[in-house]
Amino acid sequence: MSKTSIGFVGLGAMGFGMATHLVKEGYAVHGFDVFPASVERFKAAGGIPASSLQDSAKEKEFYVCMVASAPQVQSVLFGDDGIIAALPKNATLLLCSTVPASYAQSVAAELTSIGRSDIAFIDAPVSGGALRAAAGTLSIMAGAPDAALEKGRFLLQEMSDANKLYLVPGGIGAGSNMKMVHQVLAGIHILGASEAQGFAARLGLDAVKTAEAIKSSPAWTWMHENRLQRMLDEDWHPGASALTIILKDVGIITTSARQSQFPTPLCSTAEQVYLSALLQGYGSVDDSSMVRQYFAEPIIKVSSTKSDEEMAEALQLVLDLMEVTNLVAAAEAISFARYLKVDLKQFYTLVSDAAGASRQFMTKGLEIIEGLGQGDKGSETVDAASSRLEKAVQKARDLHCPLNLGNAALNVLFMAKRSGLGAEGSASVVKVFEH
Amino acid sequence: MSKTSIGFVGLGAMGFGMATHLVKEGYAVHGFDVFPASVERFKAAGGIPASSLQDSAKEKEFYVCMVASAPQVQSVLFGDDGIIAALPKNATLLLCSTVPASYAQSVAAELTSIGRSDIAFIDAPVSGGALRAAAGTLSIMAGAPDAALEKGRFLLQEMSDANKLYLVPGGIGAGSNMKMVHQVLAGIHILGASEAQGFAARLGLDAVKTAEAIKSSPAWTWMHENRLQRMLDEDWHPGASALTIILKDVGIITTSARQSQFPTPLCSTAEQVYLSALLQGYGSVDDSSMVRQYFAEPIIKVSSTKSDEEMAEALQLVLDLMEVTNLVAAAEAISFARYLKVDLKQFYTLVSDAAGASRQFMTKGLEIIEGLGQGDKGSETVDAASSRLEKAVQKARDLHCPLNLGNAALNVLFMAKRSGLGAEGSASVVKVFEH
């Protein structure tokens, strides 16, 4: 005997995993996708194929929307033959697509304006990749009125890891904002991994040894560790994480930041490099291919002819670049999160165990969140941090190596110094964003 | 009967023009270059070939050094068989190469430390291109003690236009600093011309019509007007102004800015794009090829299918992009000039009639130089300017068009807003740099 019926739209890599996991858990999942082949594949995996959007929604008390973008959401929800018109009274609708918070809010407003405020609507973007989707262990950042969250909670729990379901205070839009500020870090660190390894190659450093040093240092990021093997192997076709995916997420960030008129110098810089790479034809390949923006050959081919002492000195430049840039990235993400009234303690917990994590975020980021002046006694000053980064940036310039994030971060630190923050703890660079 | 004898080193494109002009004016010019072919060519043009550096300097009361970079200067002046050792007592030495001010100062210090303070040394970088070099109508920015300037003045006058010899107060290094802060604008506007025309192409606008509109608008820059034809014709080989030339000048700026720990967000951004293009193989070609970083095809091929109204709207985005970005560029250059204690009135005069000129510099830049609060009554606010730029940047993002300078400028304006400057005149964006 089946559990309750669930409608589902969007059977791509992530959506397919989520929907088939629900099938395995015993639900009668009625799935739809614009690609008939995806529906067939879902049927083969035990799902119930829906013949149309309306068919997928009719008489379904629960519905999950996992299409790729806000325009697609708008079309499937409110277009001709749309989901909303077909959903029964008091249905629960989970929007799991990554969309701008303002868009999620506009869905709620539209539901009200067309007289469907009976629908319990939950803004619930997910994170974690296709494998975790299929295992029902995603991270989910869910925001909605309490009554809606109560109705949808069991379904959120089915799809997420027990420790990774974040009920985000703030109602509709809060889940999307939480995901977005997390992606600020992800978007910067993806490029940062390539920038650091490309710079190391320019310095004549061995790629694997450099990576090992990064992993065990304060420069560590989740993204660097995650992307490293694909970067070394140049295993880009088909990409496990196509450039266009992070570009879409970063586009949501910079668009929202512009709407808030909030500066995001590092994330914007990363976006510009991604757009340049898109123009060069890298859109569909794995984002670890960004290393090509810094080094023209496979980095694995670099074999060092330096002395141990020279190697240690060069390696330190790479570590300093990443560490100080990641500090500024943490400041940018946290200040934007604070501006958006995101719950910072929850943000910290989420990031520390997700793709946006970095050792800098977990240490200096915590200082920033807990309030400056407590943790920063005796810590490195803005002057000292900028001086370390300056050496790396100058060396890269001498080698004619682009260092997009490093330069952007250094300019932020110089702004901090111009504001008189030079002698304060390095975490106070956040004040540049918060005046 | 010849006028006085002059030694000359560095017979490249600029140096050859300068040296042969002096020959035409009746001087006995003894020229040397590391490339024997350049010396032969100089001989064919009426010059006196020197067989060595020492030969070019021996018994010459006046000497002009026009090699390409500071390391080359160091080598020809102080290396084995160097110029200084060969120059007679009380000789006058003009250093016309573009070098960091700190390097020019180190030359003066070295002259003193080796007991050759008898040499009248003048820091005198030039600007204007090979044609003006050959015509003796360069811009020259000369800094030195008064006594030295007095001795070298006739020679500076021979090589420069009557209105374009700038005797820069501040002694050795002041000339180089003046040239450097001018190049902040040149370095940004070269990329800005490509960014604007590339964005226009993405918008489906006709390249020539767009260029005409820019020329007659507040978005005008000297660089855009100068580079336009080569950009339209894709006349890049051999470049009239190779990417590596502006990259060298920009490198002097960002290196000096780092030494001063002064933020140069736009100039640094331009440098990063130049470095990326260098990696793509654009180093030796004309810098108007930077348009390729924004549009994959020749922009002249774009034929618009838009209505007049749509065209006007799209064109306005291009004009807004350039105008507001140029305002921030003016603020960056002027604040850096002020920080370096460059004479701002002279800077204004020089820029207005040189390659760094822009209509924004000549209007808003003047406001900034004369002191805010006088000219800015009733003028556009920071809020309004950033809002115009924001629309352009968002549109570019929607089109997946990189907009490196536009994004960097917008982040500076957002920083200004975060500092509480939103309601002030747009020229007060300079306060971000000056706190």
From TrEMBL, chains A, B:
It comes from the Eukaryota. PROSITE patterns: 3_HYDROXYISOBUT_DH. One of its GO terms (molecular function) is NAD binding. Residues 173-293, 314-432 form the 3-hydroxyisobutyrate dehydrogenase-like NAD-binding domain. It holds the Pfam family NAD_binding_2. Residues 5-161 form the 6-phosphogluconate dehydrogenase NADP-binding domain. InterPro entries: 3-OH-isobutyrate_DH-rel_CS, 6-PGluconate_DH-like_C_sf, 6PGD_dom2, 6PGDH_NADP-bd, HIBADH-like_NADP-bd, NAD(P)-bd_dom_sf. This is Oxidoreductase. The lineage of its organism: Eukaryota, Fungi, Dikarya, Ascomycota, Pezizomycotina.
